[in-house]
Specification:
The protein is mainly α and about 600 residues long. Helix content is about 80%, strand content about 0%. Keywords: Cytoplasm, Membrane, Repeat, TPR repeat, Transmembrane, Transmembrane helix.
Length: about 600
């Protein structure tokens, strides 16, 4: 079964950007002829199972050379799979579509489709498919600048692979994780990580993965300005991809060779390989690859003082980059256009592009800085929450100690009072019996002390004891009052935060959580203990209900419609297993 899954996975799982498909890719004309025959067979097929099989063959055949055609065929296959209730086949088809979208550079579409696919994946997906899914969204997030999400996806894929001993995919996910370092300008780390990954691939005898890892090592060397080493790695792996006819891989290798030769001042070779890469990527309709390649061409022509060609390619690259939201390519093209206009004497235009370049450069820097600061803030808030909880625990313990002391003193007082009382009464009774009298003498506490009957004390003894009890009561009341005042202040602050309508923001939610935990230290712990299936959004709604907020307040706080808030509460009490909204409120208030 594992062997079948492995073969099945390799047909559709790997995303193009960082994970290169290794199957034989026929020439475009041969693909078109063979595709025509398969389409004809699909029209003549008598059974849906036959049509599904042929559609899968058609998709696999065209994946590398004509990925733009894949979406329509996937849609046809999904209709058949849903009609026949084949959820596993439906999942396989849609995973192929994710790969095709990544090949075309449609990364935002990949992420949208992947989100819709998650429920089906969780229901019927096997480990290999889950790893493929994580790789696809990891690559899409990487190319759209969401590096933290990309790293989480690649790490998740590695965990799935390690658990199920899927060695080849583990290595490819590790390689993708290493490639992320280049987007953080950590090229030494990138090189070291990829070199470790190469050793792992050699240990596992993954012959097909070794050329791919060496290709990515060449990227690291190029970023470290070791262009001779980078060219050496590229020329080493080039024959492998030429032999397999892998067009996407060749497009990448030619592009990187072009850039390395350009930086090595070998401009003729740089243009030669750039044009080779451009032809391949145009045939593949790889918009993201073309965007970056055309940026390189713009730089080459600028350096050669071929200004018309420079403007043509830099403008085209900028247009593609903006459509695909490729932030670094947008920024770098602004710089190229600024330098171009400066050399042509168009200083007003140069200044305009230079301003845009610095705006984008600063925005990217600020975005990365904010991510770092946010991580530090989360750590600080976690530490602060721990401190607040410890302080509350200390205060509670102190209050309990005072209560125990009061009880002990009250017990001692009671014991002393009654012992003294009965002793004196016994003595008086004996005296009265001698004289034949029946008189009882009573001494009572002053008003405000419940008129407890006490015997006579030594001078000052009773007053001192009562004074100590009253002092302990006053101190205990003071502590309780301070805690109550602090709780009231914190609840007011919570309500102010809710009225700001920013709770949908994770950063603002963390601040809200810090305050909420002071007021109700064990609320979330008890909620998770009683209802472990609740997700983050449902816990947010529970917190607002705990604070006695209406549907309207909840909608404003979470930046959603009132109808959405009402539906969210409905789903929440159904998930908990309650019958109505009032039961939900009563349950949460109780916790």
């Amino acid at each position: 079964m594992y062997a079948n899954c492995r073969t099945y996975f390799l047909l559709f799982c790997l995303s193009f950007i960082s994970i290169i498909h290794y199957g034989q890719s026929p020439a475009t004309d041969s693909v078109a002829i063979l595709s025509g025959k398969i389409l004809k067979n699909i029209e003549q097929a008598d059974h849906d199972s036959t049509r599904l099989k042929l559609l899968n063959e058609l998709i696999d055949l065209n994946m590398e050379s004509r990925p733009s055609l894949v979406t329509d065929w996937v849609a046809q296959g999904v209709v058949i799979a849903q009609k026949r209730n084949y959820p596993d086949k439906e999942l396989a088809l849609q995973l192929k579509e994710l790969r095709a979208l990544n090949i075309q550079g449609q990364f935002t579409t990949t992420l949208a489709k992947a989100k819709a696919l998650e429920p089906l994946l969780n229901k019927v997906g096997v480990p290999l498919q889950k790893a493929a899914f994580l790789l696809s969204i990891g690559n899409a997030n990487q190319r759209t600048g969401n590096y933290d999400l990309a790293a989480a996806s690649f790490t998740g894929a590695i965990e799935v692979c390690e658990k199920n001993k899927i060695r080849d995919i583990e290595v490819r996910a590790a390689m993708n994780l290493g490639n992320l370092y280049q987007f953080l300008n950590r090229y030494e780390d990138m090189l070291q990580h990829l070199q470790r990954t190469l050793l792992k691939a050699e240990k596992y005898n993954l012959a097909e993965d070794i050329p791919m890892i060496k290709f990515n090592i060449s990227n690291a060397e190029a970023h470290l300005n070791n262009f001779g080493k980078a060219i050496g790695y590229l020329l080493e792996v080039l024959p492998y991809y030429q032999q397999t006819g892998n067009q996407p891989a060749l497009g990448l290798i030619f592009s990187n060779l072009s850039w390395c030769y350009f930086k090595s001042q070998k401009k003729e070779l740089a243009l030669e390989y750039a044009y080779k890469s451009h032809a391949i990527r145009t045939s593949l309709k790889d918009e993201a690859g073309l965007a970056h390649l055309e940026f390189n061409l713009g730089k080459i022509f600028l350096d050669n003082a071929q200004y018309d060609s420079c403007f043509k390619y830099a403008s085209s690259s900028l247009q593609k980059s903006m459509a695909l939201k490729l932030t670094t390519d947008i920024r770098d093209n602004y710089e190229t256009l600024a330098l171009l206009n400066e050399r042509q004497g168009n200083f007003a235009e140069a200044n305009k592009y230079l301003r845009k370049y610095y705006e984008w450069k600063d925005s990217i820097y600020i975005k990365e800085r904010d991510k770092t600061l946010e991580k530090e803030l989360v750590k600080y808030k976690a530490s602060a929450t721990d401190k607040v909880n410890k302080d509350l625990e200390t205060a509670n313990q102190k209050t309990k100690i005072y209560q125990v002391i009061i009880l002990i003193l009250a017990g001692i007082l009671g014991y002393t009072v009654f012992k003294s009382f009965f002793s004196r009464q016994k003595s008086k009774k004996q005296q009265l019996e001698k004289h034949g009298e029946t008189v009882v003498s009573e001494t009572t506490l002053p008003a405000g002390n419940n008129n407890v009957i006490l015997p006579a004390f030594k001078p000052g003894e009773k007053e001192q004891l009562l004074k100590e009890i009253d002092g302990l009561k006053v101190e205990n009341e003071k502590i309780v009052k301070e805690l109550h005042t602090q709780k009231s202040t914190d609840i007011t602050a919570l309500r102010d935060m809710i009225s700001s309508n920013k709770l949908h923001s994770d950063a603002y939610w963390n601040e809200f959580l810090l305050l909420f935990s002071k007021v109700y230290p064990s609320f979330f712990e008890k909620m998770k203990e009683e209802f472990p299936a609740l997700n983050q959004n449902e816990l947010r709604i529970s917190a607002l209900i705990k604070l006695n907020h209406s549907i309207t307040d909840m909608a404003k706080a979470l930046n959603i419609t009132v109808d959405s808030a009402r539906k969210a509460r409905y789903r929440l009490y159904k998930k908990i297993g309650l019958s109505n909204d009032q039961e939900l409120i009563d349950t949460i208030i109780r916790i």
